[in-house]
Design goal:
By secondary structure, the chain is of the alpha/beta class. The chain has helices at 30-44, 57-70, 93-96, 100-107, 120-137, 149-160, and strands at residues 2-9, 50-53, 74-76, 142-147, 177-183, 187-194. The chain is globular. The relative contact order is 0.23.
Length: 196
Amino acid sequence: MQTRVLLVRHGSYALLDCGLGGREDHRLSAQGREEAEWVAERVAGYRPAAIVSSPVRRACETAELIALRTGHAVHVDAAFAEIDFAAWTGKRFKDLAGDPAWHAWNNFRSTAGVPGGESMLEVQARAVAGLMRYAGRNPDGELVLVTHSDVIKAVLVHFLGMSLEMMRRIEISAGSLSELIVYREDARVLAINTRP
């Protein structure tokens, strides 16, 4: 098995860099559509065997633009959904700044969870399992996964053999492309956060 996996972060939207959009129904902004078009053009050169998207709208819109360029349908899979931020969903970062649980979440990702929501370990487990499931279906092909920043970071640190606390050292910009090759018993990270 040698599956090339292209990890795409959705394009920009209204709450980007100022709050937690979570699983809310946010559309791509005009800038987000431009970013998604750039990624779609890049991905089309790879000829992916499958395009899989988070069910969250901004990811689906990004995936649909890729699908238009490649001629593939989009498969929606909750394994790649945004983190369940529970009561934090829609909150601005400035409003969370004084919350001790928010501080713990940002500093101890492997042990702290979102109150009433998901832990980062749960997110990582579902995303990596989903990636391996699709890689098994496309053992010698190319796979596009359209998802969210922290989901991509969790996948990358898994394959790099790093702790979840190291996520903060990785930048995953809106409309970016990261790339890895998954083998039967190993993996290679080829690129992180490629963008225009």
